[in-house]
Write a structure and sequence with these properties.
Blueprint: H1 10-20, E1 28-31, H2 41-56, E2 60-65, H3 75-88, E3 94-97, H4 102-114, E4 118-121, H5 125-131, H6 149-160, E5 170-173, E6 188-192, E7 206-208, H7 210-221, E8 225-229, H8 236-245, E9 253-257, E10 261-262, H9 269-277, H10 292-298, H11 302-312, E11 320-321, H12 323-334, E12 347-352, E13 360-366, E14 376-382, E15 384-388, E16 408-411, E17 416-424, E18 430-438, E19 455-456, E20 459-460
Parallel strand pairs: 1-2, 2-3, 8-9, 10-11, 12-18, 16-19
Antiparallel strand pairs: 4-5, 5-6, 6-7, 12-15, 13-14, 15-20, 16-17, 17-18
Helix pairs in contact: 2-11, 7-8, 11-12
């Protein structure tokens, strides 16, 4: 497995120093997606980083599903995520779910209550938000913040037993409502949700918040380096607080890096989900989508995606990568291995009037002109073909070398043709061209009688197959 680009990977240097200082005997990373959608190209960067970082240092990588929100999660997404990771060529060492640890998380929450570091709050979500304050103003303490340990333990147990409805009560960490970091102003760590969970069924009606569950999961699994994107940087103090105050044996180190941003590409799972839900696309694997499964259907290779992720590096600050760089890697990967085909996106019919009707000729062409080992293929040629509409102009400008009335061009792998007549519909649109061909100009025969400057791709009408073409949604 190729190593992550070390010249621009500051995380690798951190790992190397930690090992040199004896902080860890083995590196353990994890890829922790929430199963609420399909993975996209941004997730590929995290997959490559976590798996190849651990692999380079002889460590382990876990696949863990952060399934703490049963309302949005589904087994379909679990299966698709597994499939994408395997298609990219990675094998996880441990397969875990956040829901595997719900009993442990509940016990740690009870521990916080007993230590006077958590309390049950009756404020609504809107009230909690209003009490939290702003970046310039401190928050205001909840009137329920000073409940006794005994009352909080009783209320939390009754929350678990299903006595209260959704939103009636939450469990909050008791930290500092005056903290300059809003994430430390008594964040919610448990909420009520009477929803069936894809993994635990109806065992629970309270679920931990992601910010509380995530550090516990890392600590339970012995993750040494918890690598996440920059939007979690402000949550690092709470991450560390949870690990310390819940008295976890292992102490993971959270490290943030810049997420992948691509020009002209939607990189938000929420927005991609909207496209699926509103039927703007055919599904998560629509080849126009920047999901891994969509890119796979579109023809991207796993190696191209991985090489792209390696080469863009790992930075501390956000930046935007030109999508053409991604396209470069797929071209480079396919250049020597992909069979060549000809296709027409906007067809214009061409009738070769001096070619025999009903006859189809099979011409020789390389399967891949850059890789002779792939051999030869046969291309059908007949009286009727299609060319691109953009390859014809009735009144062309100077130095236009494609097809126009009276001009001669070469059909790739075939013959010279000359445009003699233009057929239009009642609205004046060009719908057909009448051309003649020169049988002496067959490609590969060494014809040198005259030269043409334009070469067009084409497809034979009777043998052509309908196809859908897609580009990633901007």
């Amino acid at each position: 497995m190729s190593e992550v680009n070390s010249s621009s990977n500051f995380i690798k240097h951190i790992v190397r120093e930690d090992l040199a200082e004896g902080k860890h005997e083995e590196i353990v990373t994890r890829f922790p997606p929430e199963p609420n959608g399909y993975l996209h190209i941004g997730h590929a960067k995290s997959i490559v980083l976590n798996f190849e970082l651990a692999d380079e240092f002889g460590g382990r990588t876990n696949l863990r599903f952060d399934d703490t929100n049963p309302v949005k999660e589904d087994t379909e997404f679990v299966h698709s995520i597994k499939e994408d990771i395997e298609w990219l060529g990675y094998e996880w060492d441990g397969l875990h779910f956040a829901s595997d640890y719900f009993d442990e998380m509940y016990a740690r929450a009870v521990l916080l209550i007993k230590k006077g570091l958590a309390y049950v709050d009756d404020l609504s979500q809107e009230e909690i938000r209003a009490y939290r304050g702003t970046l310039k103003e401190p928050g205001k303490e909840s009137p329920h913040r000073d409940r006794s340990v005994e009352e909080n333990l009783d209320l939390f147990e009754r929350m678990r037993d299903g006595e209260f409805g959704n939103g009636e009560k939450v469990l909050r960490a008791k930290i500092d409502m005056g903290s300059p970091n809003i994430n430390m102003r008594d964040p919610v760590i448990y909420r009520i949700s009477h929803a069936t969970h894809h993994n635990t069924g109806d065992k629970w009606c309270i679920y931990p918040m992601y910010a509380f569950a995530h550090p516990l999961e890392d600590a339970i699994e012995g993750v040494t380096h918890s690598i996440c994107t920059l939007e979690f940087e402000d949550q690092r103090p709470f991450y560390n607080w949870v690990v310390e105050q819940c008295e976890m044996e292992a102490t993971p180190r959270q490290i943030e890096f810049a997420r992948l941003n691509l020009t002209n590409t939607i990189m938000s799972k929420r927005k991609l989900k909207l496209l699926v839900d509103e039927s703007y696309v055919d599904g998560w694997d629509d080849p126009r989508m920047p999901t891994i499964s969509g890119m796979r259907r579109r023809g991207f290779t796993a190696e191209a995606i991985k090489q792209f992720c390696r080469e863009i590096g790992v930075a501390r600050s956000d930046n935007t990568v030109d999508v053409r760089m991604l396209e470069h890697f797929i071209r480079e990967d396919l250049k020597m291995k992909a069979p060549r085909t000809m296709s027409v996106l906007h067809p214009l019919k061409v009738v070769i009037t001096n070619y025999p009707e009903g006859e189809v000729e099979w011409l020789d062409a390389e399967v891949n002109p850059e890789n002779e080992e792939m051999g030869m293929r046969k291309i059908p040629f007949g009286r009727e073909i299609y060319i691109e509409q953009s390859d014809f102009m009735e009144n062309p400008p100077k130095k236009y070398f494609r097809l126009f009335p009276g001009n001669e061009v070469r059909l790739k792998h075939a013959y010279f043709i000359k445009c003699n007549e233009v057929i239009k519909d009642v609205e004046g649109n060009v719908v057909e061209l009448r051309c003649t061909y020169d049988p002496e100009t067959k490609s590969g025969t060494g014809f040198t009688g005259r030269k043409v400057k334009g070469t067009l791709h084409w497809v034979e009408a009777t043998q052509a197959k309908e196809a859908e073409f897609a580009c990633m949604i901007p």
